[in-house]
Every structure is written in structure tokens, then in C-alpha cells.
Amino acid sequence: MQKGFFALSPSSADAVAGHALMPSEDLDLLQRQFPDCTTLAFADIGAGMVLVTNSDAALEQHALNRLCADAAATLAAQGGLSPQAAMICTADEIRVILRADKHPDDVLICICNPSLDLPAFRAAAQATLSRLAAAD
């Protein structure tokens, strides 16, 4: 499993309401719960940076930059609305992008197999994103 760490400050690991996991551990836990999710990336789309990744495949920096740019474009305001989530489905993958409630530039980008239990994953991923954004 490939893991990446980018531009995280030491304060990112601060406990949040009894939560003591590091951001990478949060992503590890989510991926263990949902093995059909092959790539997870916590990103700041305002800064255009992927902060932490967890992926079954090695991802080069240009691929991470592309993930972040695609997420920003997908969640761009449409007609005055700024969506909190987006999903892109193909025959080979489901791409889920979730925006943090209180920190709209913080997003969780998830690339998953089509066999994913989407309702269960969405709830768990949103909870993970809330913890990551609060610690950011």
C-alpha cells in the first residue's frame, strides 16, 4: 500500500474530541473498513495541494496534482451553488469527492471499485473527513 505525506504540520495530529489518530491512520482505517476503496486523498483545493494519501498504487506528484485540480473543478460553484459532494461513475471506478462542512477547501477524494457499498462508505468517509478537517 502506497502512502504519501505532503505539507502536514505537527499540529495536524492534535487530538480532536478524544481523537488521537494521525491523518494517515484515519485514511488507513477507512481503507481497511472499505477495501474496495483503492485511493484516498485528503486535499486542500484552495491551495491546490494533496496533504495526505493512502493508495494501493504508487502515485506520482503530477497525478496527485491532477486529482486535486479535478476535485476543485468538479466541486466548483454552479449557478451560485457550491456542492458538498460529487460522484463520478464509470464501468471501472467510482470517484467520490466530499467537501468538509466547516472548511470548504478541505476535501476527501476517493477512488473506488464499482462493488463498493456506497451508502456505508459515504457515511464513514464523511466522518473521516470531518475529523481530518478539524485537525487541519
Question: What does the model show?
Answer:
The protein has helices spanning 23-33, 61-74, 118-135; strands at residues 2-5, 37-44, 49-55, 85-89, 94-99, 106-112. With 136 residues, it is α+β, with helices and mostly antiparallel strands. The chain has a six-stranded antiparallel β-sheet with strand order 1-3-2-6-5-4, with helices on both faces. Strand 2 (37-44) and strand 3 form a beta hairpin. The protein is globular. The chain starts with a strand and ends with a helix.
Short description:
The protein is of the alpha+beta class. The protein has helices at about 25-35, 60-75, 120-135; strands spanning about 1-5, 35-45, 50-55, 85-90, 95-100, 105-110.
Query: How are helices and strands ordered from N to C?
Result: EHEEHEEEH
Number of strands: 6
Adjacency order of strands in the biggest sheet: 1-3-2-6-5-4
| CATH fold category name | Beta-Lactamase
Quickly give the structural class: alpha+beta
Give the total of domains.
Answer: 1
CATH architecture: 2-Layer Sandwich
Q: Largest sheet, described in full? A: 6 strands, antiparallel
Blueprint of the fold:
Layout lengths: L1 E4 L17 H11 L3 E8 L4 E7 L5 H14 L10 E5 L4 E6 L6 E7 L5 H18 L1
Antiparallel strand pairs: 1-3, 2-3, 2-6, 4-5, 5-6
Helix pairs in contact: 1-3
Q: Any key phrases for this structure?
A:
single chain, 136 residues, alpha+beta, Beta-Lactamase, six-stranded antiparallel beta sheet, globular, disordered N terminus
